[in-house]
Amino acid sequence: MTDKPTKSPAKLSPKAEETITRFEFTIQQSPEAVFWLDRHGRFSYVNNQACVSLGYTQDELLSLYLWDIDPDEGKKRLFELRDLSKGALAEMRALLLELRPAALAEAELPSLLQQLRNWLPRWQQLEVVSGLGISLRPAESDGSRTQRELQLEDQLLVLRQENETLIERLGVQERLLRMVAHELGHNFNACHTHQTCNGGTPIDCCYTGACCGGSGSGCSSASSSSTGTVMSYCHLWPGGLSNITTFFHPEIQDDMQTEASAHLPVYTNVGTTICLGVENSTGAGALLVGTGSCSIGSNDLMLTCSSLPTGGSGTTAMILNSTGPAGVVANPAAGGVASDGMLCIGTASNGATFGRHINDIYMGTAGTFTRAIDATDLPHPPAPPYSVAIASGETWYFQVWYRDEGPAGRSNFSSAVSVTFGP
Asked: HSE (CB half, 13 Å, CA atoms) of 348?
């Protein structure tokens, strides 16, 4: 008999591990103190700001309980636990008496009276007391309120509880959004508003200290402000997050835009859209756009097609080109099956010739693809090598043909663009 092979734990994908790492980093570097407690009241996780705000190291906090830090809060939680325990014991005693009625004869009168007092709220909920002729409602409400009014009161109570829950959830989401915006600001060279990392003077003095990288200086003393922005620490003062707007300060915006311009590529659409794509199985028409430039010397024109079908096995798509002039053929047929879209980069009757990029076909479920257009070797008939070199001053037309869900042979076309090339 051989041992059964042990099942190895599932391995996270690199993307999932990266997401978890980013989440852990964001929580650890959050400007708000984050505490996690286990069911015994002991700290199970604390971030950097929690350590700073309480004056403990991480190892010290993880060895403490809530009442070690805040005796009043710990005492409150212990009383809550005591009340819950007493309620559970009362329910257990009631259940035992219900299951063993003979115990009523054995019990002392004071004990029975105490048990009756514990039972009455539960009996009221089960509408048992009405059968005994006992009214547990205040005297002034006797006969003055209808059953409908009582039902509306109960519904109002439920709505109030749901509203409180919603407000609490919105508060959590708002704090999370502010925290994420704050950390994203740092990724774009945004400094804290109480620091001078990027020159100038502090915008506010809600906090003191040097900049996150150790450079620059901060305020020598802290003071409250109710007009803090995303990169401020004004939430540490009375009023909390209400002291902070949901915007970046104009000076911070300038710093972030400068950083983005220095490192992020800037793309400008190339060409002119001459027709739109007809709606496909995604509910939208496929869109074709050009980026890069129309310079033959740079030869950097890129065509991107998006909003392609993603269901089932996805789609097969191919770029078409034409010498023009532009012309529209609605629902062109191929193999006896009419297309759902329209070909608008020219017609045979107006002298247009067409090329198909058959060596660069897209197949997949991503819903989008990008292809480079080689101005020196553009697929186009009529004679070998079935390619041409685009000349400066020429206008070419591009469109994508693709398969869609539905009957065999069903196809469609993207929007189309015209590009006039230069040297």
From this structure: 2
- d(Cα 326, Cα 243) in Å, to the nearest integer? 59
Per-residue model confidence (pLDDT) at position 255: 84
In degrees, rounded to 5, the angle at the alpha carbon of residue 245 between the alpha carbons of residues 243 and 246 is 140
Compute the distance between CA of residue 163 and CA of residue 12 in angstroms, rounded to an integer. 38
Beta partners for residue 318, in sequence order: 401
CA 200/CA 317 separation, integer angstroms: 54
Task: Please choose, from the candidates 308, 302, 298, 311, the residue with its C-alpha nearest in 3D space to the C-alpha of residue 360.
Answer: 302
Instruction: Calculate Rg over the CA atoms of the chain.
Output: 36
Q: Is the pTM of this model over 0.85?
A: no
Contacts of 224 (CB under 8 A, 6+ apart): 206, 234, 237, 238, 239, 243
Q: What is the pLDDT of residue 129?
A: 43
Note every long-range contact of 233-240, with CB atoms under 8 Å and residues 24 or more positions apart, other chains counting. Answer: 233/31, 233/192, 233/193, 233/194, 233/206, 233/207, 234/204, 234/206, 235/31, 235/32, 236/206, 236/207, 237/206
**Tokens 């009241």 identify what position?**
41
- The contacts of residue 26 (CB under 8 Å, 6+ apart) are 179, 180, 183
Q: Which stretches within 35-70 are classed as H helix?
A: 48-54, 58-61, 66-69
Q: What pLDDT digit, counting tens, does each position of 68-121 carry? A: 777 776 667 666 666 665 555 555 555 555 555 555 555 566 665 665 555 555
Residues with Cβ < 8 Å from 166, sequence gap 6 or more? none
What's the CA gap between 225 and 207, in Å, rounded?
A: 10
3-state helix, strand, coil in the chain (%, to 5): 35, 20, 45
Tokens of 223: 């003071």
Instruction: Give the CA-trace dihedral at 22, 26, 27, 33, to 10 degrees.
Output: 170
Query: Are 356 and 379 spatial neighbours (Cβ–Cβ below 8 Å)?
Result: yes
Contacts of 44 (CB under 8 A, 6+ apart): 36, 37, 38, 62
Residue 120 is classified by DSSP as: H
Parts of the chain with a pLDDT under 70:
1-12, 15-16, 39, 73-75, 77-145, 149-150, 167, 170-172, 196-200, 209-218, 220, 224-226, 265-268, 334-336, 382-384, 406-409
